[in-house]
Protein backbone atom coordinates (compact mmCIF):
# COMPACT_ATOMS: atom_id res chain seq x y z
CA UNK A 1 0.00 0.00 0.00
CA UNK A 2 1.16 3.51 -0.81
CA UNK A 3 0.58 5.54 2.30
CA UNK A 4 2.71 8.72 2.50
CA UNK A 5 0.86 11.45 0.62
CA UNK A 6 1.78 15.05 -0.13
CA UNK A 7 -1.04 17.48 -0.89
CA UNK A 8 0.66 20.56 -2.36
CA UNK A 9 -1.26 23.63 -3.43
CA UNK A 10 -1.00 27.08 -4.93
CA UNK A 11 -3.36 29.67 -3.47
CA UNK A 12 -3.65 33.44 -3.24
CA UNK A 13 -6.57 34.01 -0.91
CA UNK A 14 -6.63 30.70 0.99
CA UNK A 15 -9.59 28.99 -0.66
CA UNK A 16 -7.48 26.35 -2.42
CA UNK A 17 -5.55 25.74 0.81
CA UNK A 18 -8.85 24.94 2.54
CA UNK A 19 -9.72 22.47 -0.22
CA UNK A 20 -6.26 20.86 0.13
CA UNK A 21 -6.74 20.54 3.90
CA UNK A 22 -10.16 18.94 3.39
CA UNK A 23 -8.59 16.40 1.01
CA UNK A 24 -5.78 15.73 3.48
CA UNK A 25 -8.29 15.22 6.32
CA UNK A 26 -10.20 12.57 4.34
CA UNK A 27 -6.98 10.76 3.41
CA UNK A 28 -5.91 10.76 7.07
CA UNK A 29 -9.26 9.35 8.17
CA UNK A 30 -8.67 6.55 5.68
CA UNK A 31 -5.41 5.65 7.43
CA UNK A 32 -2.90 7.42 5.19
CA UNK A 33 -0.05 9.63 6.39
CA UNK A 34 -0.59 13.02 4.80
CA UNK A 35 1.18 16.35 4.71
CA UNK A 36 -0.57 19.36 3.18
CA UNK A 37 1.57 22.38 2.37
CA UNK A 38 1.94 25.29 -0.01
CA UNK A 39 3.64 24.12 -3.21
CA UNK A 40 6.27 26.85 -2.85
CA UNK A 41 7.31 25.41 0.54
CA UNK A 42 8.07 21.89 -0.71
CA UNK A 43 11.81 21.19 -0.78
CA UNK A 44 11.80 17.58 -2.01
CA UNK A 45 9.53 14.61 -2.68
CA UNK A 46 11.80 11.85 -1.36
CA UNK A 47 9.59 10.85 1.56
CA UNK A 48 6.31 10.81 -0.40
CA UNK A 49 4.79 7.85 -2.25
CA UNK A 50 1.90 9.82 -3.75
CA UNK A 51 1.27 13.46 -4.63
CA UNK A 52 -1.91 15.51 -5.00
CA UNK A 53 -1.41 19.00 -6.45
CA UNK A 54 -4.00 21.73 -6.55
CA UNK A 55 -4.10 25.25 -7.81
CA UNK A 56 -6.53 28.10 -7.92
CA UNK A 57 -7.52 29.26 -11.39
CA UNK A 58 -6.84 32.85 -12.35
CA UNK A 59 -7.70 34.13 -15.82
CA UNK A 60 -7.67 30.60 -17.22
CA UNK A 61 -4.33 29.63 -15.71
CA UNK A 62 -3.38 27.50 -12.75
CA UNK A 63 -1.82 29.33 -9.79
CA UNK A 64 1.86 30.08 -10.48
CA UNK A 65 3.04 28.09 -7.42
CA UNK A 66 1.26 24.95 -8.68
CA UNK A 67 2.69 25.46 -12.20
CA UNK A 68 6.21 25.93 -10.87
CA UNK A 69 5.88 22.90 -8.58
CA UNK A 70 4.94 20.48 -11.38
CA UNK A 71 7.74 21.85 -13.59
CA UNK A 72 10.35 21.68 -10.83
CA UNK A 73 9.48 18.13 -9.75
CA UNK A 74 8.35 16.72 -13.11
CA UNK A 75 10.76 13.79 -13.08
CA UNK A 76 9.86 12.75 -9.52
CA UNK A 77 6.14 13.25 -10.12
CA UNK A 78 6.26 11.00 -13.18
CA UNK A 79 7.45 8.17 -10.89
CA UNK A 80 4.54 8.50 -8.43
CA UNK A 81 0.77 8.29 -8.57
CA UNK A 82 -0.35 11.88 -9.12
CA UNK A 83 -3.75 13.53 -8.83
CA UNK A 84 -4.51 17.15 -9.73
CA UNK A 85 -7.28 19.54 -8.80
CA UNK A 86 -8.20 23.07 -9.73
CA UNK A 87 -10.47 25.52 -7.95
CA UNK A 88 -12.00 28.52 -9.49
CA UNK A 89 -15.39 28.78 -11.11
CA UNK A 90 -17.33 31.42 -9.22
CA UNK A 91 -20.66 29.79 -9.90
CA UNK A 92 -22.28 26.40 -9.29
CA UNK A 93 -21.04 24.90 -12.58
CA UNK A 94 -18.36 22.70 -10.99
CA UNK A 95 -21.00 21.01 -8.80
CA UNK A 96 -23.33 20.50 -11.75
CA UNK A 97 -20.98 19.07 -14.37
CA UNK A 98 -17.39 18.10 -15.02
CA UNK A 99 -15.26 21.14 -15.90
CA UNK A 100 -12.37 20.26 -18.21
CA UNK A 101 -8.86 21.24 -17.14
CA UNK A 102 -7.42 24.47 -18.46
CA UNK A 103 -4.88 23.97 -21.29
CA UNK A 104 -1.76 24.20 -19.09
CA UNK A 105 -3.13 21.61 -16.66
CA UNK A 106 -4.18 19.37 -19.56
CA UNK A 107 -0.59 19.41 -20.88
CA UNK A 108 0.70 18.53 -17.40
CA UNK A 109 -1.78 15.65 -17.21
CA UNK A 110 -0.47 14.17 -20.45
CA UNK A 111 3.20 14.77 -19.67
CA UNK A 112 3.03 13.28 -16.17
CA UNK A 113 0.45 10.51 -16.71
CA UNK A 114 -1.92 11.91 -14.09
CA UNK A 115 -4.41 9.55 -12.45
CA UNK A 116 -7.22 12.11 -12.48
CA UNK A 117 -8.00 15.83 -12.48
CA UNK A 118 -11.08 17.56 -11.12
CA UNK A 119 -12.18 21.18 -11.01
CA UNK A 120 -13.98 22.35 -7.88
CA UNK A 121 -15.90 25.56 -7.41
CA UNK A 122 -13.94 28.49 -6.09
CA UNK A 123 -14.36 31.04 -3.36
CA UNK A 124 -13.74 34.76 -3.48
CA UNK A 125 -14.91 36.93 -0.62
CA UNK A 126 -14.40 40.23 1.15
CA UNK A 127 -10.74 41.03 1.72
CA UNK A 128 -9.60 39.19 -1.42
CA UNK A 129 -6.12 40.15 -2.56
CA UNK A 130 -5.60 41.66 -5.99
CA UNK A 131 -7.27 44.44 -7.93
CA UNK A 132 -9.31 42.14 -10.19
CA UNK A 133 -10.40 39.95 -7.26
CA UNK A 134 -11.60 43.00 -5.35
CA UNK A 135 -13.50 44.21 -8.43
CA UNK A 136 -15.21 40.83 -8.79
CA UNK A 137 -16.26 40.87 -5.14
CA UNK A 138 -17.44 44.50 -5.24
CA UNK A 139 -19.54 43.77 -8.35
CA UNK A 140 -21.40 41.06 -6.42
CA UNK A 141 -19.93 38.17 -8.40
CA UNK A 142 -17.88 36.67 -5.58
CA UNK A 143 -19.01 34.04 -3.13
CA UNK A 144 -18.19 30.54 -1.95
CA UNK A 145 -18.96 27.90 -4.56
CA UNK A 146 -16.91 25.08 -3.06
CA UNK A 147 -18.82 21.82 -2.59
CA UNK A 148 -17.11 20.06 0.30
CA UNK A 149 -19.21 16.91 -0.16
CA UNK A 150 -17.83 16.68 -3.72
CA UNK A 151 -14.30 17.40 -2.50
CA UNK A 152 -14.48 14.75 0.23
CA UNK A 153 -15.95 12.16 -2.16
CA UNK A 154 -13.06 12.74 -4.58
CA UNK A 155 -10.52 12.37 -1.77
CA UNK A 156 -12.21 9.14 -0.68
CA UNK A 157 -11.80 7.78 -4.25
CA UNK A 158 -8.09 8.59 -4.07
CA UNK A 159 -7.80 6.80 -0.72
CA UNK A 160 -9.61 3.78 -2.11
CA UNK A 161 -7.25 3.62 -5.10
CA UNK A 162 -4.21 3.90 -2.84
CA UNK A 163 -5.25 1.07 -0.56
CA UNK A 164 -5.11 -1.22 -3.61
CA UNK A 165 -2.18 0.40 -5.48
CA UNK A 166 1.35 -0.89 -5.62
CA UNK A 167 4.36 1.37 -6.26
CA UNK A 168 5.17 2.34 -9.85
CA UNK A 169 8.30 0.79 -11.20
Give a quick rundown of the structure.
The chain is of the alpha/beta class and 169 residues long. It is built from seven helices and eight strands, in the order E-H-E-E-E-H-H-E-H-H-E-E-H-E-H.
List descriptors.
169 residues; alpha/beta; six-stranded mixed β-sheet; two-stranded antiparallel sheet; 7 helices
Task: Walk me through the structure.
The chain is α/β, with parallel strands linked by helices. It is 40% helix and 23% strand. Strands 1, 2, 3, 4, 5 and 6 form a six-stranded mixed beta sheet that branches. A two-stranded antiparallel ribbon has the order 7-8. The mean pLDDT is 90.
Let me know the largest β-sheet: 6 strands, mixed
Please provide the ordered H/E string of secondary-structure elements.
EHEEEHHEHHEEHEH
Instruction: Give the N-to-C terminal Cα separation.
Output: 14 Å
Amount of helix:
25-40%
Uncertain parts: none
Given the structure, what is the number of helices?
7
Shape: globular
Beta content: 15-25%
Structural class computed from helices and strand pairing: alpha/beta
Rounded Rg: 15 Å
Amino acid sequence: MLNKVLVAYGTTNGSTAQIAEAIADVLRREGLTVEAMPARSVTNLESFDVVVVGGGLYAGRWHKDARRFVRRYARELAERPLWLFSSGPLDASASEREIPPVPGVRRTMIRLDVEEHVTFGGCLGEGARGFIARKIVSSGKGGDFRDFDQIEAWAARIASALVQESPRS
